[in-house]
Design a protein that fits this description.
The complex is a heterodimer of chains A (367) and B (481). Chain A has helices at residues 2-33, 60-65, 92-97, 123-128, 181-184, 207-213, 236-240, 281-287, 301-308, 330-333, and strands spanning 47-51, 57-59, 69-76, 82-91, 106-113, 117-122, 131-137, 140-149, 152-153, 161-169, 177-180, 192-197, 200-206, 221-226, 231-235, 243-245, 253-255, 268-273, 276-279, 291-293, 296-300, 315-320, 325-329, 336-341, 344-349, 358-359, 361-366. In chain A, a hairpin with a 2-residue loop joins strand 24 and strand 25 (344-349). Chain A is an alpha+beta fold. In chain A, 23% of the residues lie in helices and 41% in strands. Chain A is built from ten helices and 27 strands. Chain A has an eight-stranded mixed beta sheet with strand order 15-14-18-19-11-27-22-23. Chain B has three domains: 25-136, Oxidoreductase, molybdopterin-binding domain (Sulfite Oxidase, Chain A, domain 2, Alpha-Beta Complex), CATH 3.90.420; 145-174 and 189-252, no CATH class; 261-480, Alkaline Phosphatase, subunit A (3-Layer(aba) Sandwich), CATH 3.40.720. Chain B has helices at 2-27, 44-48, 67-74, 159-164, 261-271, 286-294, 317-326, 330-333, 348-354, 388-399, 412-420, 425-444, 471-474, and strands at 33-36, 52-57, 60-66, 81-87, 92-96, 103-108, 112-117, 129-136, 145-148, 153-157, 168-181, 184-198, 208-212, 217-220, 225-229, 232-236, 243-244, 247-252, 276-281, 306-310, 359-362, 405-410, 448-452, 458-460, 463-465, 475-480. In chain B, the strands form six sheets. A six-stranded mixed beta sheet of chain B has the order 20-26-23-19-22-21, with helices on both faces. In chain B, strands 10-9-18-13-14 form a five-stranded mixed beta sheet. Chain B starts with a helix and ends with a strand. The chains are: A alpha+beta (367), B alpha+beta (481). At the A-B interface, helix 1 and strand 6 of A face helix 1, strand 11 and helix 5 of B. Strand 6 (117-122) of chain A pairs antiparallel with strand 11 of chain B, so a sheet runs across the interface.
Chain lengths: 367, 481
């Protein structure tokens, strides 16, 4: 009996030691999980402050009422280690939809946490990736939200959001010039050279000549749209170094003997390069219904302006190849058409005097 | 009673102290990675699951892991390899992979992860190890990134070998964080150091084509880099803005001719009301064409104007065939290798159909891709171990029907090449037979004829093989007659 009593004592001591070790182990695990939170204020966040939108705040409940998504996102730690989390919450774009905005409308969005920590999400993330205001991460409830962006560094995964600042709204369009391709190719400075395309010999121009003539700087990419609806973006350098075939089958055709045929673009309607769009009137004739103005049938200028996304302005300048130009108000621009007569591309306006007609129309620019 | 409480309180304190000792080590183990020429990249948690051994160090027994167990778990790609032990202080040691019987990985608070080699000189015991890099000693172009031009295989770089090459260090800005305390902003700019190898340090070039494991391609100029990530090599563009993961090949000064042109050329002619016969000689590489022409095996084809064209990665039948009939790279058409059949985009047969014309595909004994049209299949009726004679006979019958687009897929050159090697006498004899087929088909066809292949082949110990960015596998002949 004595032996049992003694052993019970020893056993209870051992049990106590094990218990305390166990307790410590549990507390260590918890502190590991919460390691990147920073100093947290204890008060519950019931609304998120906003800046840069029409409202100055939105309640957490209102955000939680929006459609939720559930995604597997990876976060990258500062040491480069990748961790996958199950993220549940509201897409930032869904929240912005309430304000008729999108992530891509902003150059930066800053997330500020309750502990004062903040980070800007730059435009290259905002334009390419979904940002989730996560209310749960791996099943763990967030207070109220944690930012989650797939395949981005953990420093962007801000916890305990209290404020979101929407900064530097981008202009809806940066296009300030539309150049009429067919007229441009008639200029002497644009050298035409023979180009063998299957069994025929056609004419082609160097893209670099065309860009130099229109004073275009170097841009990273070009975006093509063909008259059959095909769309493609291409590296700006590849665009600058190659050709556009201007006669024969499939013209205007982006082409080069150095490019595989899969990279050629035929029947180009528009080539958007930086703030300039090259517009093919001939391809436009295939796409748009013609409108009659002063006995001439042509493409309404409004169609072209919408197609190329020309910046809205009070006034525009229309210029011909010989330098002649007219200034037109945005209201009057809607009355114009581009048409072809005697192989010359020209513009005419309803109800406007004759001197506003421009023959050999080369470009329309925002004033 | 009071004494008892005090005793229990002290016992509790001892428990807390012991607990701290025991659990701190588990939680704060430094990360170690097994990278390089391995199928599986391993990290600390993988190692902790391995069997522990007791080793004697400074007269005491310590728990350690066998390096051989770790290596085995990581599955080295090649049998012949070295391991590079990389310390966080920059000290490295390289050891042959076949002499690791008495090598152990051991963790201590003082030296962190440390390799103990009982058979090697003491300087092989590297401390504070952050990486163990497996480096293949055989460079045979079957693994890693192959750099080739239109004529030859130039260089093979495996992830393990890339680790040892001299690289440039870049600080890549990751972002800027701010914390505001009492209206004062405290800012931190965060950077990540990246070690990149300029491709131009390996080879001079003006333009190159990069191919990756997912069938993506990119034309690059001379300003790109290679970066090691675990067991893969990535391409990183100038300015570190763009990345192409897991690249498999760099083709220096590539040709613009592709076997994918079959799609565009066929469409061009059919649209212009010409009929097209497409002859697809499976496994007929440009090197084989050159050899056959030089040695008189292709009296007919050698009289035709021939172009050297490139196939796609992976140069195997499904991917090459899909590229030929869609005009798109595997990333876009969805067929990356032999295990893929489903096409994400329209094929030339769909386009021909939309033009209101008829297309026919004559195949071997199975349908290879899920094309919208059902191919006409063949079996070896005369038991002569090839179905190409049956395909040829059926084609000669179909030719008479005046079809708009007829595509024939011959398999014999590939089959024999796999068994005997790409330049063997048997393969050349098969090419000779196909030259005769091509001659008769061209003679009987009223319209355009396009002849090309899905991939080439190179010779290995057991016969022939293909599937890498190698000059023998990637370049194929392309003829329009």
């Amino acid at each position: 009996m004595k032996l049992i009593r003694k052993n019970i004592k020893v056993l209870s001591i051992l049990l106590l030691i094990l218990l305390s070790m166990g307790l410590l182990a549990c507390s260590n695990e918890k502190s590991e999980k919460a390691a990147n939170t920073g100093v947290k204020e204890n008060k519950e966040v019931k609304e998120i402050k906003l800046s840069g939108l029409e409202k100055e705040s939105i309640s957490v409940d209102k955000i939680n009422e929006l459609d939720k998504v559930s995604k597997e996102f990876r976060s990258i730690t500062s040491s480069g280690e990748e961790k996958t989390f199950k993220v549940e919450g509201v897409l930032l774009n869904r929240l912005l939809k309430k304000f008729n905005k999108k992530q891509s409308n902003f150059t930066k969005i800053r997330f500020i946490a309750t502990d004062g920590y903040s980070i800007n999400l730059p435009s290259d993330i905002l334009t390419k990736k979904d940002v989730v205001l996560a209310s749960k991460v791996d099943g763990e409830k967030q207070t109220p939200f944690r930012v989650a962006v797939n395949n981005e560094r953990s420093m962007y995964w801000v916890k305990d959001i209290s404020k979101i600042e929407f900064l530097e709204e981008m202009e809806m369009s940066n296009i300030n010039k539309v150049v009429f391709f067919e007229t441009l190719t008639t200029l002497e400075e644009i050298k035409k050279q023979d180009y063998t395309y299957y069994e025929s010999t056609d004419k082609a121009i160097k893209v670099s000549d065309m860009l130099n003539k229109m004073g275009c700087a170097d841009f990273e990419s070009v975006f093509f749209k063909a008259s059959d609806g095909f769309k493609k973006s291409e590296d700006g350098k590849i665009f600058r170094e190659n050709y556009i075939k201007i006669t024969g089958e499939n013209a205007p055709l982006f082409i080069s003997p150095d490019l595989p045929k899969g990279m050629h673009v035929k029947n180009i309607l528009t080539s958007s390069y930086g703030n300039t769009v090259f517009f093919s009137i001939e391809e436009g004739f295939k796409v748009y219904d013609k409108k009659e103005v002063k006995e001439n049938k042509g493409i309404p200028l409004t169609k072209i302006i919408n197609e190329v996304g020309l910046k809205s302005a009070e006034k525009y300048i229309i210029t011909a190849t010989d330098g002649y130009n007219v200034e037109i108000s945005s209201k009057d621009l809607n009355k114009g058409i581009v048409y072809k007569k005697d192989n010359v591309y020209q513009v005419v306006f309803k109800e406007l005097p004759k001197n506003t007609n421009v023959k050999h129309i080369l470009k329309i620019e925002v004033k | 009673m009071r004494n008892k409480i005090i005793i229990y309180f002290f016992i509790l304190l001892i428990g807390v102290f012991l607990g701290k000792l025991a659990f701190n080590d588990k939680i704060y183990l430094e990360d170690i990675k097994i990278i390089g020429d391995v199928r599986e990249v391993l990290s600390t948690k993988d190692i902790l699951n391995l069997k522990e051994y007791k080793i004697k160090l400074d007269s005491t027994k310590k728990k350690a892991y066998k390096i051989n167990d770790i290596i085995k778990l990581s599955e080295p790609v090649k049998k012949d390899f070295n391991i590079l032990l990389v310390g966080s202080d920059g000290i490295c040691g390289e050891i042959s992979g076949d002499k690791l019987n008495e090598s152990f990985l051991y963790y201590s608070k003082e030296n962190k992860w440390e390799v103990i080699n009982f058979n090697h000189p003491i300087n092989g015991n590297i401390k504070k190890i952050k990486n163990i890099v497996i480096i293949s000693q055989t460079k045979d172009y079957s693994y890693g990134v192959n750099i080739i031009n239109q004529e030859k295989n130039i260089e093979n770089i495996t992830p393990g070998n890339l680790y040892k090459m001299s690289k440039k260090s870049f600080l890549h800005k990751q972002g800027e964080t701010t914390k505001e305390i009492e209206d004062i902003s405290y800012n931190v700019s965060q950077f990540r150091e990246r070690k990149l190898l300029p491709i131009k340090d390996i080879i001079e070039y003006k333009r190159a084509l990069i191919m990756n494991s997912k069938g993506n391609e990119k034309y690059i100029n001379s300003s790109g880099y290679l970066e090691l990530k675990g067991n893969t090599i990535n391409y990183v563009s100038k300015g570190l803005k763009e990345k192409i993961k897991d690249i498999r090949g760099i083709i220096i000064n590539p040709t613009s001719n592709r076997n994918m042109n079959l799609y565009y050329d066929t469409y061009h002619y059919i649209e212009n009301d010409e009929k097209v016969l497409a002859i697809f000689l499976d496994g007929f590489g440009y090197k084989q064409y050159e050899y056959a022409a030089l040695n008189g095996y292709i009296p007919f084809m050698s009289t035709l104007e021939i172009k050297k064209a490139m196939s796609v990665y992976k140069p195997v039948t499904n991917a090459g065939f899909a590229a030929m009939i869609t005009g798109k790279i595997p990333k876009e058409n969805g067929v990356l290798n032999r295990s893929y059949r489903k096409l994400k985009v329209d094929t030339i047969f769909d386009k021909v159909d939309k033009l209101g014309k008829e297309g026919i595909l004559i195949e071997g004994d199975i349908k290879i891709l899920d094309t919208s049209i059902e191919p006409k299949l063949n079996i070896d009726l005369n038991n002569n171990s090839t179905i190409d004679d049956e395909i040829y006979n059926l084609a000669m019958k179909e030719i008479k029907k005046n079809t708009d687009f007829l595509m024939l897929h011959f398999h014999g050159i590939d089959n024999i090449g796999h068994k005997t090697g790409h330049l063997s006498k048997e393969t050349m004899e098969s090419i000779k037979i196909h030259d005769e087929y091509v001659k008769n088909l061209v003679k009987n066809w009223e319209g355009k004829v396009i002849m090309t292949s899905d991939h080439g082949m190179h010779t290995v110990k057991e016969g022939g093989d293909h599937g890498q960015v190698r000059v023998e596998d990637i370049f194929v002949p392309y003829i329009i007659k």
